[in-house]
Amino acid sequence: MPEDRSLDEFSTAGATDTAADDAAADDAAADTVDAADDAEDSADTAGDDDAVPDLDAVAPAEATYDVSPDGADCAVCGATATRRWRDDPGYVCADCKEW
């Protein structure tokens, strides 16, 4: 199994990659054209497009993976494992995880 990596390694915040900047500019231009087309298509529909979503109504994220350096019991077989994944009965070892 490959080593775990931090999500920070994949972050583009503060990156100075000009190819990524060019792609972002192209995407923004395409979004502007799409937005204009969508505005024309939905001009006859009523709705509040400026409404702010209720962030309290969003369910918080749940961890799908657990690392216990001293080991923890698998919810299915009871074996001690340092790495466990969330499954229906709880956190389970790699052998019990339904991939």
Structure overview:
It is built from one helix and three strands. It has one helix at 18-41, and strands at 65-73, 80-87, 90-92. Pfam families: DUF7573 (PF24458). InterPro entries: DUF7573 (IPR055995). Residues 19-53 have a biased composition (Acidic residues). Residues 61-99 form the DUF7573 domain.
In short:
Residues 19-53 have a biased composition (Acidic residues). The protein has one helix at 18-41, and strands at 65-73, 80-87, 90-92.
Topology:
Elements (H helix, E strand, L loop, with lengths): L17 H24 L23 E9 L6 E8 L2 E3 L7
Protein name: DUF7573 domain-containing protein
InterPro entries: DUF7573 (IPR055995)
Pfam family, one: DUF7573
Strand content: 15-25%
Strand order of the largest sheet: 1-2-3
Order of helices and strands: HEEE
| Biggest pleated sheet | 3 strands, antiparallel
- Kindly provide the radius of gyration, computed on alpha-carbon positions and rounded to a whole number of angstroms: 23 Å
For the termini, the CA-CA separation is: 14 Å
> What's the average pLDDT?
76
Q: Count helical runs.
A: 1
Structural class: alpha+beta
Low-confidence stretches: none
Number of strands: 3
Tell me the overall shape. extended
Q: Helix share of residues?
A: 10-25%
Features:
alpha+beta; DUF7573 domain-containing protein; 20% strand; 1 helix; three-stranded antiparallel β-sheet; DUF7573; 99 residues; 3 strands
